[in-house]
Amino acid sequence: MQIESLGLEVDEFVVPSGSGATHAGFLFGLRALGCDKPVNAVCVRRDANAQRGRLVSRCQEIADLVQAPNPVSDTDILLNDDVLAPGYGLLNPATSDAIALAARTEALMLDPVYTGKSMAGFITRAQEAPDRSLLYLHTGGGPTIFGYATDLTEALAGVT
């Protein structure tokens, strides 16, 4: 893997999980390459119970598409829906804080739909496991920010 060739050590990955396509593809690819590092997914669209079935299906679809055995087991599917409420595309305090922190400290623009919520989950995971090296998979979403201008302005007013 590229990470190893660069001499970097990653203990686990954190990814957003919405439609399940990116999450399943990333997890499937890692397992197919023999990487057993945990992939912790932050639910941004539906709760963990509903998302689990989607991930199982998406991984099997990939296996069928590439005509290979499915290397993903049920125990590989790690889902967290702690920052999902109040629902898909709706801001919550953890998401607003994550968006502000990423912008202020990393000049990283996050949207409230996928990347803001998944960054909130990433921050929580980093606080839970401070001794582990985590890698966050940023999936884009920049154009979405413009659709949330009013919500973001209100949510981030006074944030320093």
Question: Can you put this structure into words, describing what you see?
Answer:
The protein is of the alpha/beta class. The protein is globular and about 50 Å long. Strand 1, helix 2 and strand 2 form a beta-alpha-beta unit. A four-stranded parallel sheet has the order 3-2-1-4, with helices on both faces. It has a single domain, classed as Rossmann fold (3-Layer(aba) Sandwich). The protein is built from seven helices and four strands, in the order αβαβαβααβαα.
Strand order, sheet with most strands: 3-2-1-4
CATH class: Alpha Beta
Number of helices: 7
Amount of beta strand: 5-15%
Task: Give helix % range.
Answer: 40-55%
Task: Tell me the number of strands.
Answer: 4
- Main pleated-sheet profile: 4 strands, parallel
Tally the structural domains: 1
Quaternary organisation: single chain
The H/E string reads: HEHEHEHHEHH
The computed structural class is: alpha/beta
What's the architecture in CATH terms? 3-Layer(aba) Sandwich
Distance between the termini: 38 Å
3D shape: globular
Instruction: List segments where confidence is low: pLDDT < 50 over at least 5 consecutive residues.
Output: none
- Round the mean pLDDT to the nearest integer and report it: 92
Computed over alpha carbons, the radius of gyration is 16 Å
